[in-house]
Amino acid sequence: xxxxxxxxxxxxxxxxxxxxxxxxxxxxxxxxxxxxxxxxxxxxxxxxxxxxxxxxxxxxxxxxxxxxxxxxxxxxxxxxxxxxxxxxxxxxxx
Length: 94
Prior knowledge:
The protein is α+β, with helices and mostly antiparallel strands. The protein has one domain: RRM (RNA recognition motif) domain (Alpha-Beta Plaits), CATH 3.30.70. Helix content is 28%, strand content 37%. It contains three helices and six strands; from the N terminus they run αβαβαββββ. The protein is globular. The termini are far apart.
């Protein structure tokens, strides 16, 4: 799997920014077929940082309805990437 296919997008929420500030952990959406080793290698090569650990979560898609129609959102995978001291990923560089 190509490293550009592993990490899809950053997850920027209140919870993810609190985790980043408290423990230097970045949250990203990843490919559902990617494993922890592939996520670690992709993060190190793409962002030029040192990764300490990777934790993954499979997120189930919600069932939504619009009137009589019922649909389901896609399942997706989230990864918490713990960075070593001195490493930082800033998605919005000002």
